[in-house]
Design goal:
Distance between the termini: 72 Å
Largest sheet: 4 strands, antiparallel
Oligomer: single chain
Number of helices: 3
CATH topology: Pdz3 Domain
Structural class: alpha+beta
Shape: globular
Strand content: 15-25%
CATH architecture: Roll
Number of domains: 1
CATH class: Mainly Beta
Strand order of the largest sheet: 1-6-4-5
Length: 142
């Protein structure tokens, strides 16, 4: 089979689901996972440390406990992480050329309407508008 006929796998087919245990050997009840990135940094949330296993450092976090976290601020992602029952189920994907840590780059791409990527962009935008875009109430003073 030539390179031209090999179809590149979509990032969605590489999603991994795992469970995050409490920190191994810490005895303090802390999670065995640390996160970085977030919409406030223009990035997807990603794993920065996983001493308890169950995740790979550098992977992009798609969901925590069934809640989509793409487009959330780092504080909101940590809030979701800390509010889930243990062990926490997370969905991650390794960054690649089509889905890297740069949130702005992904949102600037054009995808076919209705495609998985287009739907993901919409979900990200909804999370951004709910959590990161300041909202002002304007009173009608007429």
């Amino acid at each position: 089979m030539s390179k031209a006929t090999v179809k590149k796998l979509h990032w969605r087919s590489k999603v991994q689901e795992s469970f995050v245990p409490l920190g191994a050997g810490t005895g303090s009840g802390e999670l065995g996972l640390a996160v970085g990135g977030g919409a406030d940094y223009g990035e997807f949330p990603f794993v920065t440390a996983a001493p308890g296993g169950g995740a790979t450092v550098g992977d992009i976090i798609l969901e925590i406990g069934g809640t989509p976290v793409l487009g959330m601020t780092l504080g909101d992602v940590r809030g979701v992480l800390n509010s889930c029952p243990h062990p926490i189920r997370i969905k991650t994907v390794s960054p690649g050329s089509s889905l890297c840590k740069d949130l702005r780059l992904y949102l600037s791409k054009c995808f076919t309407p209705g495609s998985m990527d287009s739907q993901l962009q919409q979900l990200i935008r909804e999370n951004l508008y709910l959590r990161a875009v300041p909202c002002k109430n304007h009173l009608n003073t007429r």
